[in-house]
């Protein structure tokens, strides 16, 4: 769902602010594309559905219900499947949230970003801290134990003390899942322009690292498991949907720019998307048309808006398994690696003298009977470790 009421100062995602929206047409195209891609995949069972954006909570519950009905009509959608919807506090009133629950949503991911009004203004958010609190409290009433919060750190001028106080406030409010994202300055955004013109100071890299480490320590002390680079959960409230990405499972992207995605199980297949219905047995990376009006025209004419298809080589699949799997605390098990590489084991690739051994000796990486994973210290440095590991894999 690529539409928003306004564009935040830091955002360069595929989002559109439009004066008027034909939601019936958009919803009809989401339904049609979901049916088409599920048919091409010959999917048998859905494990999760994630409505992302944009601001999916601006869609009507009727539209969400129609998409879920289409999915359930084309494949098995068990009652136990995780169905998440991203929501902004400004479009998360009681009536709307109750409508989403009635439509089949059973998990909410709320873009709180900050509980400080000055920080929210800096980020260009349209809600206040008080509105965010009310939205989270109402979400927890309707979706107990299944409400996740998003927070951003590393804002211009933000001190470690301010970040710690903000996180402490969020801990007093949050449910059993929280996602922390370091602010990234993206070219073309209002916030990046202000920083690059010298109007706003960015925290130095050492301070950003300290903020991240302090947050990890605080959350683990509060009973959260740091199960992925940016994600923390307690009481087993891990995101099924996002874990499927990190485990390199198969998923179907529906909507402009993959706004909705469905990890799924297909007999004898793993990967992104295998279009069995077109006679193919190769895993593909598929990219949907980004611009909504063009996407709708393509869906109406050919049933889907897939703009680009790339058949993934064995090496490309293993690169994804490596880069995604090491983001989690479980890492990559031998069994999981074997699904993608039956003839070349983890030990054969990374157990020999080379980059991985060096990283092990430095305390960043572990290769043992469970598989390959980062240490607690290594997880914070993953981006700097990956290039060496990818080079070793390619050799």
TrEMBL record:
<dbReference type="InterPro" id="IPR034505">
    <property type="entry name" value="Coproporphyrinogen-III_oxidase"/>
</dbReference>
<dbReference type="GO" id="GO:0006779">
    <property type="term" value="P:porphyrin-containing compound biosynthetic process"/>
</dbReference>
<keyword id="KW-0479">Metal-binding</keyword>
<keyword id="KW-0349">Heme</keyword>
<dbReference type="InterPro" id="IPR006638">
    <property type="entry name" value="Elp3/MiaA/NifB-like_rSAM"/>
</dbReference>
<dbReference type="InterPro" id="IPR010723">
    <property type="entry name" value="HemN_C"/>
</dbReference>
<dbReference type="InterPro" id="IPR007197">
    <property type="entry name" value="rSAM"/>
</dbReference>
<dbReference type="GO" id="GO:0005739">
    <property type="term" value="C:mitochondrion"/>
</dbReference>
<protein>
    <recommendedName>
        <fullName>Radical S-adenosyl methionine domain-containing protein</fullName>
    </recommendedName>
</protein>
<comment type="function">
    <text>May be a heme chaperone, appears to bind heme. Homologous bacterial proteins do not have oxygen-independent coproporphyrinogen-III oxidase activity. Binds 1 [4Fe-4S] cluster. The cluster is coordinated with 3 cysteines and an exchangeable S-adenosyl-L-methionine.</text>
</comment>
<dbReference type="Pfam" id="PF06969">
    <property type="entry name" value="HemN_C"/>
</dbReference>
<comment type="similarity">
    <text>Belongs to the anaerobic coproporphyrinogen-III oxidase family. HemW subfamily.</text>
</comment>
<keyword id="KW-0411">Iron-sulfur</keyword>
<keyword id="KW-0143">Chaperone</keyword>
<keyword id="KW-0496">Mitochondrion</keyword>
<dbReference type="InterPro" id="IPR058240">
    <property type="entry name" value="rSAM_sf"/>
</dbReference>
<feature type="domain" description="Radical SAM core">
    <location>
        <begin position="1"/>
        <end position="225"/>
    </location>
</feature>
<dbReference type="InterPro" id="IPR023404">
    <property type="entry name" value="rSAM_horseshoe"/>
</dbReference>
<keyword id="KW-0949">S-adenosyl-L-methionine</keyword>
<dbReference type="GO" id="GO:0046872">
    <property type="term" value="F:metal ion binding"/>
</dbReference>
<dbReference type="InterPro" id="IPR004559">
    <property type="entry name" value="HemW-like"/>
</dbReference>
<keyword id="KW-0809">Transit peptide</keyword>
<dbReference type="GO" id="GO:0004109">
    <property type="term" value="F:coproporphyrinogen oxidase activity"/>
</dbReference>
<keyword id="KW-0408">Iron</keyword>
<dbReference type="GO" id="GO:0051539">
    <property type="term" value="F:4 iron, 4 sulfur cluster binding"/>
</dbReference>
<keyword id="KW-0004">4Fe-4S</keyword>
<dbReference type="Pfam" id="PF04055">
    <property type="entry name" value="Radical_SAM"/>
</dbReference>
